[in-house]
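Two component transcriptional regulator, LuxR family (Blastococcus haudaquaticus), 220 aa
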Amino acid sequence: MTVRVLLADDEALVRAGLRMILEAEADLEVVGEASDGVDALRMCRDLHPDVALLDIRMPGLDGIQAARRITREPENRTAVVMLTTFDADEHVVEALRAGASGFLLKSMPRDQLVTAVRAAVSGDSLLAPTLLRRLLDDFVSRARTPLTTAPGVDQLTPREEEVLRLVARGLSNAEIAAALVLGEGTVKTHVARVLAKLGVRDRVQAVVVAYESGLVRPGG
């Protein structure tokens, strides 16, 4: 299977560097390059890439706005990954809330970039669990708006809520299975049902919903 990738960054040199790294891999293909969010959105609709790497800061329509539009189109199954210069970027959580599956540092080693692109296609998390929890703990602690229950949360069974809380703690399916004394296949089924009920694409989005709904509390 060839993974089709779209690159969106307003710096041509950055795009060239990313293309060189990705196309050195036999299973990765760069199908398009965009210099802003408007072009990225159009190319996602026209080219249907598997993964879109979007710079957070771009002129016109920025990466966050583009991510929100891309992930909210039902027919568009492109996994969106944000590119940033600093891991403490204040817009990272906003990007996750917009539907991004994770974020990558532009300074990361080439092998990590390649691994992350493949992970995005398989639906795996692109954020270390500890980093995701730190970001969301900080976001929720500073949020001035009250927590609201997202659609689908009230449809979760007690077991599914329990599984979601463990996912939010960063546990893998195998670790959840051990903690709850369940088969790993059973846990995988529970996770799939949680994602479906919450209407989200991956585990990262499910964790964001868990925090915003108050199902998981900062530091908990």
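The longest strand covers residues 28-34. The radius of gyration is 17 Å. ok done for today
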